[in-house]
Amino acid sequence: MAAVRAAPVGPSQLRVQIGLTGAVYLNFFTHHFGPDLRYALTVVLMVAFRRAQVRFNVAGYARQMPLLIAFALIGLFVFIAETAATYLGAWVYPHQQQGWQPVHPGKWLAWTLLMVVAFLIVSELKTWEARRAAALSTDPRAGDQNRRGQSRADQAREPAPRAR
Length: 164
Description:
This protein is 55% helix and 10% strand. The protein is built from 5 helices and 3 strands; from the N terminus they run E-H-H-E-E-H-H-H. The protein is globular and about 70 Å long. The two termini are 22 Å apart. The relative contact order is 0.12.
């Protein structure tokens, strides 16, 4: 079992993450009728995350690696799975109509960028949740509320979870 932990980011870093996430996501749609900016976005991502590390635990041992390598490896594994799936006939791309051919290597970068978008969205959501929880815990008007914003009285009205 692996557990991954991300360090909280400040407001300026969060704005950069939101901007990069939006730009990469928008490029997935606009590159069909405008310029394909994935290579430029990749360079910006490499600069923005050049020092970022991902820390994780595997079988009780703490490990870390550069975040960019983690993104690239995940993209590579998805690319390999996509290539294997087309070989096995799960779907066929237009260039494979006359016979199987490997998926274009450019898909590796596309999968890597999609992984970056997913990671940044989750990171932004976790940062927002942590700030909201901190604000609730320090706000005297929040009263006796838990992380979901429920008071103890509301919690008491909820049925207890069933044992399976």
